[in-house]
Amino acid sequence: MLRPASTRWFEVLCPRRESVRTVTELARTGAVEIEIRDQVCGDSLLEHLSEGLQTYDALKVRYERYWERARLRRKLLVESPDVVLERALARIGAWRREADPLIDILQSCEEELTRLKWLAQVIGKIIDSPLDFGAVARSGPVLGTFCAVLPRDARPQLPDWVIPRPIPWGDEDCAMILGPRDRLDAVKRLVQAVKGRVIERPPWLKGDARDSLARIGARRAFLSTRVVYLKAELDTLFDEFDLGETLGEVAGLAWFAAHVGCLERAGEHLVWVTGWTDDLGGERLRAALDAARTRALLRLTKPPPGKRPPQILDNPPWMRPFELFARSLGVPGSDEADPTPVLILVVPLLFGYMFGDVGQGAVLVGVGLWLQRRWPEARLMVLGGASAIVFGILFGSLFGREDIIPALWMHPLHDPLTLLGVPLLFAVALLSLGHLLSGLSALWRGELRHWLMQDLGFLVLYLGLIATVLRPGLGWIALLGLAWYLIGAFLVHRALLGGLAAIGHLLESGVQILVNTLSFARVGAFALAHSALSVAVVTMADSVPLWAGILIMILGNVLIILLEGLVVSIQTTRLVLFEFFNRFLQGTGRVFRPLPVPPPIVREAVQGAT
């Protein structure tokens, strides 16, 4: 588990006319990244269909709104792409000839519904005003009116020969504009130029404001009913032309063109599908090809010379949420240790120490259990909350109160020096572990001798300095480490300049690791801050009547969980990434990027698949 696994190189030989289907089935496993072995021999399988696919894309932009109302029955692709695309475009064209008139009427109804909605809002604003809407409705033939809804910061220069009447209108400006009917078109263009909306009164709208609202309501009800019937007619046409199956097939071609495009030619009638897979035994790939009844041959083999395999983290499912930390720096290379197995202990310990409280930890556990089905990373919250419960028992804290359960270890505010000192000892152990993990990486790189002669001496020097602080009589350990490092550096470099460079590196690394160690004092500081904030909430709750105290305890604990939970999470992440990881992890691995899953299909029996 400590060493990342390398993906395996796979090769699939299949008939050219089945290549799209074969790649689709492989991609459906989520376990393949396509990489052509020899780009010179690449075969752009759908290049001759590019014009047809562009036509499909244009049609999809225009009609997708109506196609999405129905379910696309994406079948297995068993025919050649040429036949599929030609049939799809012909069938879409036939559908369009009958659907376009209905769509035009539908869009007209929807646009009128929108205009009437705006007009009803305008009339509703002036229904109780002194403005005589009946007189407005009877204006003409010389005068005309319309309403303009303008963005708040818009200031169009209206001509002097129009009369605007402001209307109250939320976050925008609205005005009814009166002017010569034959010159109002120019004013409407001014309004639209500043991204305003023009609301016109339809000719059939008569009467006063209340009568007009009734007429608008009746018209909107009629249009809404008509829209429903028009959509039903379009759905019927969709089924009559069997567009569900047709669009499903061509969607698979569009997916292939967008995400694959080119494969390696293996002859006149065959192609190679090659790349990387994280299915290290090939079981899922073989099962997918067999289920689709493809005439494809699969083999897992050594990668071609010069190909760099992507790395994957090989951890059991319950560990994978902790991969989030390592992935934030990339992916560990093949010669770098995966810190995930270590983090399953380190992260909860750091979080729980800074957030030690039984009640608040239980809340985090409950929220994490509720979220983890939709968000797997919520397991981090579950384990962090469980750790907070354990430290809450050690600190004797329950929802901030320290007078309910006894402290099995100490109350943080009663012994702050111990609270600050323990994280420093933890830091020494953690940073030493990081140094040992760098030695493991050196072993995998074949550089263990260099690490033993020089870097191990640096670790002995570091531990010797820490031991000297605790017990001055152990200073000889630090001297032993210093001599070890200097002698090893000389033997490694065999040159004065190299030795001087090693001394400079020693000074830089020594200062850095001491600063990294002191950074862990913030763990104790945040534990103190959490305890102090809890005491402040309890003190306020105890100084007021019971009902107010209960309210303060509830709101105070909610505030602590939200605020301290966020701060402690940030600090835990910072210590892991910048204090622990910089000892051994650079994230030099290549990320495995599997093909995106193609559109889903409805599997049907394939009769006579060729």
Characterization of the model:
The chain is of the alpha+beta class and 610 residues long. Among the domains are: 90 residues, 2-Layer Sandwich (Alpha-Beta Plaits); 265 residues, no CATH class. Strands 2, 3, 4, 9, 10 and 11 form a 6-stranded antiparallel β-sheet that branches. A 4-stranded antiparallel β-sheet has the order 6-7-5-8. It has a two-stranded antiparallel sheet with strand order 1-12. Helix 3 runs antiparallel to helix 6 and helix 15 packs across helix 16. It is extended and about 110 Å long. The C terminus is likely disordered.
List segments where confidence is low: pLDDT < 50 over at least 5 consecutive residues.
603-610
Structural class: alpha+beta
- Cα-based radius of gyration, to the nearest Å: 36 Å
What oligomeric state best describes the polypeptide chains here? single chain
Task: Report, as a whole number of angstroms, the end-to-end distance.
Answer: 43 Å
**Largest beta-sheet details:** 6 strands, antiparallel
DSSP summary, beta strand count: 12
What's the SSE pattern? EEHEEHHHEEEHEHHEEHEEHHHHHHHHHH
Give the CA-based shape: extended
Mean pLDDT, as a whole number?
87
Strand content: 5-15%
